[in-house]
């Protein structure tokens, strides 16, 4: 067997100083060598272990000399292991606190000695890189002991420059958010549905008159403050969002203020966390005080109700007045008609004819006002009778044909092949719309033609959608005026009223009637090249009523009984 020895050779000298004898001293150092080998293996294992940690590790003896340094510590400090070993760590790597004050490296082992070997933790220290750059570190140091005595320490540290940057950015962001929430009177909340733990910001409490900490922060506190009439609706919205995140949680409700009143709150939130099985474990959101907005909305609602009541009163007044005025107008028209059939001198007959025409014009205006007032007051009801569509078209064309002939206009009418002859609806109101549109087309056209066309654009089992088109080659209107044509008391411009007359109610009434018949109306026009008005109506095609079509009775030779309390109308 071999063993390790330490050998010392001691010479014995004569009088001249020459060695005459040697004494050899051998010491068995096998145990020491084994310990050194074991220590070397341990050091290599420690190096391998700490190099894989991703953190800097160093060890010091009680004098502050560096006895170990891993690769990450080399990288973080800028010094090699060979340069640091056996050197005083404090002389090489200068310490200072985060506030800039100096810190001795000996503070750590001394602190460990003075505190019976307690672990030292800090994020307030800074190290100095070999280049001179100072960087903050998070450090943990623990004592190394032998036989109960501290012989040094080992420390693990990290460069927390990026963490500090993120933390500062987060603090700045939180500060900005806090300022924004306070300025907008908005509170922040964070809730765990599984544990019921919650966080309410100071603004959340203050909008209800409380200071943070005065109430427990959980959902029970929140629910207890909600108005009882709103609680079920709020809970339903919240549960819908928890079970289906595509459903947006946003709800308005009332919460009791500390002083006893009710504050209107807008709550909006979103599930922001889930557990391993997908269940929501975090919901984040805001509370915003919308009491002022609600007060304004209530004022606007009251004002709207007052305005609607006034509008209904106006419409009722116009409807009643139009009816009252129409009665004497009928007498004027009837009497002038009788006078025209009498033997009058030419001049007087001309006067009466003008009175008769003016009265009929005024009656048409009154009829428009009456219809418009009924529509505005919601008192206009449509008939629902079986009628022949071709008879309506023939009647309309017959009524406008004379005026078109006087102006030398060509009057056209066409019907699609699949348009039903017999339908159910309101023939008089359909006729009224067509007369309005055709009358306008003839009135605003001096040369060319006026066309009426009807076709089917949609059909279901019991209904059919008809599209009517009225086209002319008249004066047309500018593009920016088209959108105002269907407004009440509106015409293309003031010159239209002066040149052609009218109230500007015809198209407004037509639009309302078309809408009541389940359709819509639009206009297309080009200045100087004519206009086209297109509207749709929905009529019933169900003919299972025992009626094939209406038959006009022959009233020739019959006498009429007229019942009215107006003497002139009877005459």
Cross-sheet strand order for the largest sheet: 4-3-8-7-6-5
Poorly predicted parts: 108-115, 545-549
> How many strand units?
20
Report mean pLDDT, rounded to a whole number: 83
Q: Radius of gyration from the CA trace?
A: 50 Å
Structural class: alpha+beta
- Percent range of helical residues: 40-55%
State the end-to-end CA separation.
Answer: 155 Å
Shape: rod-shaped
How many distinct helices?
A: 17
| Beta-strand content estimate | 25-35%
- Characterize the main sheet: 6 strands, antiparallel
What does this structure look like?
The chain has 17 helices and 20 strands. The chain has a six-stranded antiparallel sheet with strand order 4-3-8-7-6-5, sandwiched between helices. It has a five-stranded antiparallel sheet with strand order 10-9-13-12-11, sandwiched between helices. A hairpin with a 3-residue loop joins strand 17 and strand 18. The protein has helices at 30-51, 71-77, 81-84, 89-92, 107-114, 161-183, 202-206, 219-225, 228-243, 291-340, 346-376, 389-406, 427-443, 479-482, 494-500, 506-516, 567-570, and strands at 5-13, 19-28, 56-61, 66-69, 95-97, 120-128, 134-146, 149-159, 186-191, 198-200, 249-256, 262-274, 280-289, 385-388, 410-415, 422-425, 449-459, 463-472, 521-526, 530-540. The chain is rod-shaped and about 185 Å long. The model is unreliable at 108-115 and 545-549 (pLDDT under 50). Helix 10 packs antiparallel against helix 11 (346-376). With 571 residues, it is α+β, with helices and mostly antiparallel strands.
